[in-house]
Amino acid sequence: MIIDKLDYKNIEIPDELDAVVNAAIAEGKSQRKKNKIVYILKKSTTIAAVFMVCFITLLNTSPVLAQAAYEIPVIGNLCRVFTFREYHFEDDIKYIDAKIPQIENTGKSDLEKRVNLEIQQKIDACISENEEMAKSYYKAFIETGGKPEDFTPIGITVNYEIKCINEKYVSFVISQYETAFHAYNHEIYYNIDLESERNLTLKDWYGNDYKEIVAESIQNTIAGWTDAQKEMLWDDIAIIELISEDTDFYINQNNQIVVVFEQYEVAYGAAGTLEFTIQEPVD
To answer: Is 92 in a helix, a strand, or coil?
Structure first.
């Protein structure tokens, strides 16, 4: 079956659909929860070292390259994030496109087993939840007068992006996107300290003053915005109150922390997802 995703724009949504969907989903469905790769090239640096820096930069930005890197001596000693499983499934009410990542080559077998199992469980839970949602939407569509042949399948896409890989850290994000009558996007962030074998928090990175450090950097960034950009923010928003150990972030290829606020979290929906690169505090 070939699915024309452009049909979403032409769906006639019955007025009663939202109420029926909300009632169907409410039954038994739990709410989804909501240093720096620095290679200082001194005058005595060899060409081989220069090549190493360039290659690691490519490794951080290309999942395909990262998947093949383990075959190359020395470079292969870095942690690897790769597509463990990829599949496509579709039927009359949904279609699923999923790329499931795993980590390896960390030298920490227990870490790899734990993280990979957690990734698989979270993705399985997301897909299962969205399958149930697709059934609920289909049921609501039919109950409000829709014809089975007119129902456009709900799209579920799972993918990942590598943000940083070096000898100390591996940072990547798993994204889940569902195309229903209201599109929804959700990300899961992994920032793994390979030495401690822990998924880092902002407190781990900045210490006990992490809220003040992160909030001040974000406020300084916002201060440099245009008036039009500032008007997108919610009124009287207190950035520091939004910072916690659960705040989403990733480590970029310069070993900088990038804090991420989901759509609607700090601004109107038109602003989309907002990212702030945190500047290190000056001693």
So the answer is: coil
Q: What is the distance between the alpha carbons of residues 52 and 247, in angstroms, rounded to a whole number?
A: 33
Domains of the chain with CATH codes:
5-196 (3.30.565.40), 201-283 (3.90.640.20)
- Report the length, in residues, of the chain: 283
How many Å is the Cα radius of gyration of the chain? 22
- Distance (Å, whole) CA 117 – CA 121: 6
Q: Could you tell me the pTM of the whole model?
A: 0.72
pLDDT in 10s for each residue of the chain, 283 residues: 444 444 434 444 445 545 544 444 444 344 433 333 334 334 434 444 444 444 444 544 444 444 444 433 334 568 999 999 998 999 999 999 999 999 999 999 999 999 999 999 999 998 898 889 899 999 999 999 999 999 989 999 999 999 999 999 999 999 998 886 566 788 999 999 999 999 999 999 999 999 999 999 999 999 999 999 999 999 988 999 999 999 999 999 999 999 999 989 999 988 999 999 999 877 6
CA dist 176 to 7, 53, 96, 129, 249, Å? 21, 31, 11, 12, 16
Instruction: Compute the distance between CA of residue 114 and CA of residue 133 in angstroms, rounded to an integer.
Output: 29
Inter-CA distances, 220 with 174, 201, 203, Å: 29, 22, 20
- Residue 6's φ and ψ, nearest 5 degrees, are -70, -15
